[in-house]
Amino acid sequence: MLDVFSAAKYNHFQEKKTWEICHNGGFWREDKYVALNGCYKYSNNVTLEQISIISNREAATYYLWNSYFTKETLIKEANDAGFKVCKIFGDVTGSSYQEDNFTIAILLEK
């Protein structure tokens, strides 16, 4: 079982730049930090979420690249890699696939 982001999620993705102060720490650090966030959309169904974390001890940047698929492109990629497609779902819980879902899950066999 594999899950990916869908083309519907890519179409919904918004480019933006934001920042926040996390006074009591948060996801990236236990102590206070500032997070500078940039969301960028590229062609070929790719996005980048760039997060720069600045704390009293260090500064670090994280790059979260995501690829997005249609049902057809996901099936083609799985077949090209030598997998047999057993079933397509809307998510890993087994919900029905719908084109407007933000995820696609695929059950594969090698």
Automatic annotation (TrEMBL):
KW Transferase (keyword) present: yes
Keywords tagged on the record: Methyltransferase, Transferase
Domain of life: Bacteria
Gene Ontology biological-process annotations: methylation
Molecular-function GO terms, alphabetical: methyltransferase activity
Name used for this protein in its record: Methyltransferase domain protein
Organism: uncultured Sporomusa sp
